[in-house]
Write a structure and sequence with these properties.
Elements lengths: L2 H4 L18 H23 L7 H4 L9 E5 L3 E7 L8 E6 L2 E15 L4 E15 L10 E5 L2 E7 L2 H5 L10
Antiparallel strand pairs: 1-2, 2-7, 3-4, 4-5, 6-7
């Protein structure tokens, strides 16, 4: 059987090609290549990961990328960082010039002992996020609080930075 028996439309209807026999070998080669590529993709996903939400990160990777929000108003800058499963002792915050650095490490162990079952699971991960603060900050008035897995950092602007804000009126065209 040739490929022409399966897909006759490739030769203009039901005509059979006169001298060219087409076999399944080219198709088999393409299918083998596809199979190898899919195997490679799955292998990379388990070992390297594609981003912060892939299996490698969920199941024990050492890199954690917490989500954060940075908002600014006339009085200051607020940074909120989601850190589920962590507490205030696991976090270190520093401000150098205009760069805010937030570091943390999560260590979690769960152990289950039942009649015929013994299970111990561990999960470790650390992170470091550095942000450039968009204004001059009064470092003596910085406050940080941790509640329900969310770290909130209040960075008040200096008086000079607050005075630099200029409101521009918008007119209808």
């Amino acid at each position: 059987m040739t490929i022409g028996d399966i897909a006759p439309w490739r030769w203009g209807g039901l005509r059979r090609p006169q001298s060219v026999e087409r076999t399944f070998e080219p198709l088999r080669g393409e299918m083998d290549l596809l199979h190898r590529n899919i195997d490679r993709i799955f292998e990379n996903m388990w070992t390297e990961g594609f981003g912060p939400t892939t299996f490698a990160n969920v199941w024990g990777s050492t890199e954690v990328v917490p989500k954060l929000d940075l908002t600014e108003n006339e009085q200051g800058v607020q940074v909120s960082v989601e850190l589920p499963g962590m507490n205030e002792k696991d976090v270190d915050i520093s401000l150098t010039d205009r760069f805010l650095t937030i570091r943390g490490e999560k260590k979690e162990e769960k152990e289950t002992k039942e009649k015929d079952v013994y299970r111990r699971e561990r999960s470790y991960g650390s992170f470091r996020r550095t942000l450039e603060v968009p204004a001059e900050i009064d470092s003596s008035k910085i406050e940080a609080s941790f509640k329900s897995g969310v770290l909130t950092i209040q960075l008040p602007k200096t008086k000079e930075a607050q005075a630099k804000v200029t409101h521009i009126p918008v007119k209808a065209a």
